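Worked example 2:
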Amino acid sequence: MKTIAYSKAAQKTLTRLPVNTAKLIRSKIEQFAAEPSSLANNVKALKGDIAGFRLRVGDWRVLMDDQGAVLAIVAIGARGRVYD
């Protein structure tokens, strides 16, 4: 299993979300860190200036960067606004 590192912005977003939504997002991140192939249909590589991957969790998107043994969670946001 990879180590998960949250950015300050991602931590702040998680604390402001409803508890059940934050729990769901955390569980999906942990599931991806443990077994990346289990969420293969919800993970895509980002294009353009942003490097990394995005994980789809309902209407929420998790932007992450896979740095070997560390899975860096860069941002968490609503599907239309997280890419800005």
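DSSP finds two helices and five strands in the chain. The longest strand covers residues 70-78.
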